[in-house]
Design a protein that fits this description.
Number of helices: 11
Shape: flat
Radius of gyration: 20 Å
Order of helices and strands: HHHEHEEHHHHHHH
Strand order of the largest sheet: 2-3
Structural class: mainly alpha
Number of strands: 3
Distance between the termini: 24 Å
Length: 318
C-alpha cells in the first residue's frame, strides 16, 4: 500500500479525525431531544420573573441539576484522546504508517460535542460547550446567542484567533479508513447501556422537550423571532438560525457576523436565555426529586470509564 507522508498530510489527517471523532462522540453521548412528548408527569416549575442568563453556554449547562450525573468535561476529553489513540493504532495496522492524529487535532474538542443539543437540536448544540469563555464550543442554540464573540466568530466553534484548517485533503481510501478506525475505536470504549444511563438520557430528553413546549419559553422565543425580523435577519427560531451557519463551512462571512450580532442582541433584549435555562433547570429539579437515587450508579460508572480510558492512553491502545 502506498502511504502518503509529510507533516501537511498528517495535519490534514488530524483535523479530519478530530471532526469525525467529535461527531461520533456527539452522536454517542448526547441525550436526545426528540421522540415522544414530555408527558403529564412533569409539573410546570416556578421561575423568577426575569431570570438572569448564565455567563456562558458551558456555565449554563454545568449548572443544570442533571449535570451532576453526566460525564464531566475532563472525562469527555479523555474519551476523545482514547479514541484518537485507538484510531492511530488501527491506521498504522492498516498500513498508513505516517498517520499521526496529534497533528492538527486540536481543531476540534470533544467537549464541544460531548454534551450538544436542546429542543431536539439544542441538546446537541448546548451540552458541554464553552464558546463564551473562549474555548471550543457553541455559542448559540435554542436559548439564543450567549457570548461576546459574535463580532469575531459568528456561529462557528473554533477558538478566537485560532487558524481555521482548510478542508481535509485525504484520498478517498484514507478518509474511509480513518472514519472506520474512529468508529472501531469508539465501539471498543463504548459501554453497554445501563439502566441508570438509559434513565439519564430519558430524563434529559424529557426535560428538553418540556422546556421547548413550556409557554414561557414559547413566548420568549416568539419575542426573539419578532426582534430578529425587525433587525433584518428573519428566522423561525434560534436553533434553526444557528444550524444555518454552523453547517455552512469554515469561512465566517459578514452575513453570518451580522446574524450573530442580531441574535446576541435579541437574546439579551428578550431574556430568552435566562428563561430557557431557568425553565430547563426547574424541570430537571422535579425529575431528580423522584429519580436521584436511581442515577447514583452513574457516578461510579464514570470513574470506571476514566480509569479505562487512562489505560488505553498509557498503553497506546494495547
Amino acid at each position: 500500500m502506498t502511504v502518503r507522508g509529510g507533516s501537511g498530510t498528517r495535519r490534514r489527517a488530524g483535523a479530519a479525525l478530530a471532526a469525525a471523532v467529535a461527531a461520533l462522540l456527539c452522536a454517542a453521548c448526547f441525550p436526545g431531544g426528540g421522540g415522544e412528548p414530555a408527558g403529564p408527569d412533569l409539573p410546570r416549575p416556578s421561575i423568577a420573573a426575569s431570570p438572569p442568563p448564565p455567563p456562558s453556554v458551558r456555565a449554563g449547562m454545568a449548572a443544570l441539576p442533571l449535570a451532576a450525573y453526566g460525564p464531566s468535561e475532563e472525562l469527555a476529553q479523555r474519551r476523545f484522546q482514547a479514541v484518537r489513540v485507538l484510531t492511530a493504532r488501527c491506521m498504522r495496522q492498516a498500513g498508513y504508517t505516517s498517520y499521526d492524529p496529534a497533528d492538527g487535532s486540536a481543531a476540534a474538542s470533544p467537549a464541544a460535542g460531548a454534551t450538544a443539543g436542546a429542543g431536539a437540536g439544542a441538546a446537541a448544540a448546548t451540552a458541554g460547550a464553552g464558546a463564551a469563555d473562549g474555548s471550543d464550543g457553541v455559542a448559540a442554540g435554542a436559548f439564543g446567542y450567549l457570548g461576546e464573540q459574535a463580532e469575531i466568530r459568528g456561529f462557528h466553534t473554533a477558538r478566537t484567533g485560532q487558524a481555521r484548517p482548510g478542508p481535509p485533503e485525504l484520498s478517498e481510501a484514507e478518509q474511509t479508513a480513518s472514519d472506520d478506525c474512529a468508529r472501531r475505536g469508539l465501539e471498543r470504549i463504548a459501554d453497554g447501556g445501563s439502566k441508570a444511563a438509559e434513565l439519564y438520557q430519558r430524563l434529559y430528553g424529557e426535560s428538553l422537550r418540556a422546556t421547548a413546549a413550556d409557554p414561557r419559553v414559547v413566548a420568549a422565543t416568539a419575542a426573539w423571532k419578532d426582534c430578529m425580523a425587525r433587525s433584518g435577519v428573519p428566522a423561525e427560531d434560534p436553533q434553526s438560525l444557528a444550524a444555518r451557519y454552523q453547517g455552512a463551512g469554515t469561512a465566517v462571512t459578514p452575513q453570518e457576523l451580522a446574524a450573530a450580532r442580531a441574535d446576541r442582541d435579541c437574546t439579551a433584549g428578550t431574556g430568552l436565555a435566562g428563561v430557557w435555562f431557568a425553565v430547563l433547570a426547574g424541570y430537571q429539579r422535579g425529575q431528580l426529586d423522584r429519580h436521584a437515587g436511581e442515577l447514583e450508579p452513574l457516578k461510579q460508572a464514570h470513574a470506571e470509564q476514566d480509569r479505562r480510558y487512562a489505560r488505553i492512553i498509557a498503553t497506546g491502545g494495547e
